[in-house]
Design a protein that fits this description.
Layout: H1 4-34, E1 49-53, E2 55-56, H2 59-64, E3 70-75, H3 76-84, E4 88-92, H4 98-105, E5 111-113, H5 126-142, E6 149-152, H6 154-164, E7 173-177, E8 180-181, E9 184-185, H7 200-208, E10 212-213, E11 216-219, H8 222-227, E12 234-241, E13 247-254, E14 259-262, H9 268-271, H10 283-300, H11 310-316, E15 324-325, E16 335-341
Parallel strand pairs: 1-4, 1-5, 5-6, 6-14
Antiparallel strand pairs: 2-3, 3-16, 7-11, 8-10, 9-12, 12-13, 13-14, 15-16
Subcellular location: Secreted, Extracellular space
Active site: 153 (nucleophile), 265 (proton donor), 265
GO molecular function: gamma-glutamyl-peptidase activity
Length: 349
């Protein structure tokens, strides 16, 4: 039988032990919340630098700059879109060997494949450079070195063609679209990384208004994914319709790697102004389309790559090049950056 005093002492002792256990548990819980592994809480890089892949000089612009005879270009609207979301830009040149791309990618935090009008079968061009970048990015991610790619229009098509394997018959279809369209979201689009945290008001704008700018002659449809068993690796999150009613894939992401694609042009709403194109420039259109570069940049902030020092960084930045006002000479782009004039051989006697 317990005596009154002994019972009281026993209860006090148990209470003290429980209190100590709770204190210890709370301490370790708090420590765990503050000190986490890099896997649980990756470091955020708030000084990201993004590479934009250049492409072959267009026939139109080549005719406007015959003396300079540039090798490649980047529309300035892509540069501005990246900068507006909080990053700097490095141009990635075409026609280089694999080590050039590997070395540069080890210093930057992601790559944008821009839209354009080049072909994929030109030797040492946009598609060859894109393939190097795509394969190196896969290697990085397989080694737990987070490295995103974002493809817009032609760049999105290139992602899928690279995923299916380049061949003489390209894995895309002809699909003419020159109008702004809404996005028809899939039922599970909220399960995607791209749209999981998208504000509902922006989703509604994209879903109900003609604010995504389409300007393409080819597109990717469901059959292109099925033909090469790409559904297991790629998640479709929305569709749009071309000018003849053909349903094409508008947004997509890879389930394994941080690779993302959109068939439309989010950069044009803010930075391209050719009147005949009639791009939507409302505040809602600008805000909704800005979401895509904001999302991509947040993905790139998960990459810790850096240049060796500020001097090396400065050597690569787009600030070393001066954009030309191409809108006034009839280009669809307001401004363009041009790179590497072709070298002509001169005979000597």
């Amino acid at each position: 039988m317990w005596m009154g005093g002994s019972l009281t002492n026993w209860i006090a002792m148990i209470t003290m032990k429980l209190t100590l256990l709770l204190i210890v548990a709370y301490f370790f819980h708090c420590e765990g919340a503050v000190i986490t592994s890099s896997e649980e809480q990756p470091a955020i890089n708030n000084r990201p630098i993004i590479g934009i892949l250049s492409q072959e000089q267009s026939f139109y612009l080549q005719g406007k700059y015959p003396k300079e005879n540039y090798t490649s270009y980047i529309a300035a609207s892509y540069v501005k879109a990246i900068e507006a979301s909080g990053a700097r830009v490095v141009p990635i040149l075409i026609g280089k060997n694999r080590e050039y791309y590997r070395d540069l990618m080890s210093k930057i935090n992601g790559v944008l494949f821009p839209g354009g009008a080049t072909y994929f079968n030109q030797s040492n061009g946009y598609a060859d450079a894109g393939q190097h970048i795509y394969e190196i990015a896969q290697e990085f991610n397989e080694a737990d070195d987070y490295f995103p790619i974002f493809g817009t229009c032609l760049g999105f098509e290139l992602l899928i063609i690279l995923a299916s394997g380049r061949r003489e018959k390209e894995n895309r279809i002809q699909c003419n679209s020159s109008l702004s369209r809404p996005l028809n979201f899939t039922n599970d689009f909220r399960d995607s990384k791209m749209f999981k945290n998208a504000p509902q008001d922006l989703v509604d704008l994209l879903a109900y208004y003609d604010i995504t700018v389409n300007a393409h002659q080819f597109c990717i449809v469901d059959e292109n994914l099925k033909n090469f068993n790409l559904n297991k690796d790629w998640r479709v999150t929305s569709y749009s319709n071309d000018d003849k009613g053909v349903q094409f894939i508008a947004t997509i992401e890879n389930k394994r790697y941080p690779f993302y694609g959109v068939q439309f042009h989010p950069e044009k709403n803010s930075f391209e102004w050719k009147q005949s194109k009639n791009y939507p420039h409302s505040s809602d259109a600008v805000r909704a389309n800005r979401y895509f570069m904001d999302f991509f940049l947040n993905e790139c902030r998960k990459s810790s790559h850096t240049f060796r020092n500020v001097d090396e960084e400065n050597e690569y930045l787009i600030y070393n090049y001066e954009p030309k006002f191409t809108g006034k000479i009839g280009s669809q782009y307001e401004q363009c950056y041009f790179f590497e004039p072709r070298r002509h051989r001169h005979c000597t006697v």
